[in-house]
Every structure is written in structure tokens, then in C-alpha cells.
Specification:
Elements: E1 2-3, E2 11-16, E3 19-24, H1 35-49, E4 56-61, H2 72-76, H3 81-100, E5 105-109, E6 112-114, H4 116-123, E7 126-130, E8 134-136, H5 147-153, H6 159-168, E9 171-173, H7 174-180, E10 185-187, H8 192-204, H9 208-222, H10 226-241, H11 244-254
Parallel strand pairs: 3-4, 4-5, 5-7, 6-8, 7-10
Antiparallel strand pairs: 1-2, 2-3, 8-9
Helix pairs in contact: 1-3, 3-4, 4-5, 9-10
Length: about 270
């Protein structure tokens, strides 16, 4: 495993066998999304998007919390409308970059994921949470409706449940977040590392090109009409069928042998 950034960095990165591990590294501030943190995330996401050898991304955090949202102290130090517009635009760009990455993004969540931290969770493709994890969009408690987190939240759970969280600021536990569809699995705290490693290994064992085809169609088709979604998905699947891995995979299945996937070219 190679570490690409120093321990002093706001965002730690390591690469291993096609997986990129990103960890928010501001534990003394519960990994809040300062301007610098957002810039670091955007830089790494842009780099990953342009790298054809990456097959999976894991997003985690250092310390006792996943992410407590925006840095409120920094926000209050810049009380202008234009500053806030630009801050939320940049945050929205980071969230969309996660959604639009060509590979799956797995969030590894321990502790609190609040406000924009909950938005970060909702933007990831898969979320594995420790049983002690907690989720909230509590801006309403300080006179601020979490409007930008609402975009991601309302695309993951039912509108009524999303609005309930947004208008009350209530905290939900990991089991409730699982039941509501905000996260994909819950494990005991001691098992979190192993559960994430198992999920990553399973993704890496699949055809890299098939996974990329899948990510390229899954999120866009959700915003389409039924007819347009089927048209789009059919075209993507036809392209997928023409790939070497699809031919190899089907031939291997028919021959009752393990497939040998094409390695991504760097």
C-alpha cells in the first residue's frame, strides 16, 4: 500500500490493488467540511475520475466522528451572501462528483454523520455503518434548514421521512438508517473494518469494465422517465455486451470455469 499524502493532510489517501482509500483527517473538528477540506476532496475526486485503473473508492474518517457537516465557525467568519453561495456550490460540486465517479464509492461510517456529513453519506453508492453510528440533519436547531443536504437525503429515503428529519433535527441510529434506506448495511463496531474490506474485495473481484458500465447508467436512469430509462439502459447494456469481459465472462460461465478479467490500462 502506498500513501500519497502526509499525516498532516486534511485528507489522507492510500491506494491498494485498484481501490482508493480516502479518509477525512480533521478529527479535532469532527471532520467538518471546511473550505480546505472541500478543496482537498474535489482534487482527489477529479484525480480518481481521470484514472482508469481505479476500481473502487472507500471514504472514511479519522477519530470518533465521520463528519459533523460544515465548519460553522468558518461560516460565521465570512457573513456575506456571495461567500455562502460559493461555499454551498462547491459542496454541491463535491457531492455530484461522488455520484458521477465512474466507480463505486463506499462510505465507512463510525460516529456521527450530521448535516453536510449526512449529505456526504447519502451521496455515496454504498454505506457500511458501525452500529454506534448516528445520522442527523440538525441545521434547523440553529435556525438553518439543511437545504443542500435535503437534495441528497430526499433521493435516498422517502420524502416524508426526509422532511421529518430536516424539520425536527432528530438523530436516528444506524438500524433506523438501514431500515429507511439511507445506508446499505450495519455491523458491530468491531467488525466495521472487516466488513468494508470484504465489500471492497468483492467489488474488485468483478469485471472492472462491467462495474464502470453499471455506475455509468444506474444514477442517470433514476432521473429519467420509464421509457427513456429503458432506452438508455438498453444502449448501455449493448455496449457492455461488446466488451471483452462480457464475452469472456459468458464463455467462462458456459465452460464452467473462472473468468479472467481484462486489467484496466493505466
Amino acid at each position: 500500500m502506498s500513501t500519497n499524502q502526509s499525516k498532516e493532510s486534511l485528507l489522507l489517501r492510500s491506494d491498494q490493488n485498484g481501490a482508493v482509500f480516502l479518509s477525512l483527517n480533521r478529527p479535532d473538528k469532527l471532520n467538518t467540511l471546511s473550505e480546505a477540506m472541500l478543496a482537498s476532496l474535489q482534487q482527489e475526486l477529479d484525480s480518481i475520475a481521470a484514472d482508469p485503473t481505479v476500481q473502487c473508492v472507500v471514504l472514511s474518517a479519522e477519530g470518533r466522528g465521520f463528519c459533523a457537516g460544515h465548519d460553522l465557525q468558518e461560516m460565521r467568519s465570512n457573513p456575506t451572501h456571495s461567500y455562502y453561495q460559493e461555499l454551498f456550490r462547491r459542496c454541491g460540486q463535491v457531492m455530484q462528483s461522488i455520484v458521477n465517479l465512474p466507480v463505486p464509492v463506499v462510505a465507512k461510517v463510525g460516529g456521527i454523520a450530521a448535516a453536510a456529513g449526512c449529505q456526504l453519506v447519502a451521496s455515496c453508492d454504498l454505506v457500511i455503518a458501525a452500529r454506534s453510528a448516528r445520522f442527523a440533519v440538525p441545521g434547523i436547531n440553529v435556525g438553518l434548514f439543511c437545504s443542500t443536504p435535503a437534495v441528497a437525503l430526499s433521493r435516498n429515503i422517502s420524502p416524508k421521512r426526509a422532511f421529518d428529519l430536516l424539520v425536527t433535527g432528530d438523530i436516528i441510529d444506524a438500524d433506523t438508517a438501514l431500515e429507511w434506506g439511507l445506508i446499505s448495511s450495519v455491523v458491530d463496531d468491531a467488525d466495521l473494518d472487516d466488513a468494508v474490506a470484504e465489500k471492497v474485495e468483492k467489488i474488485l473481484s468483478k469485471s472492472p469494465s462491467a462495474v464502470r458500465f453499471g455506475k455509468s447508467m444506474f444514477n442517470p436512469q433514476r432521473q429519467m422517465s420509464l421509457a427513456d430509462a429503458y432506452e438508455f439502459a438498453g444502449n448501455v447494456m449493448a455496449d457492455n455486451m461488446m466488451s471483452p469481459d462480457a464475452g469472456e465472462g459468458i464463455d467462462a460461465f458456459l465452460a464452467k470455469r473462472a473468468p479472467i478479467w481484462e486489467k484496466p490500462a493505466g
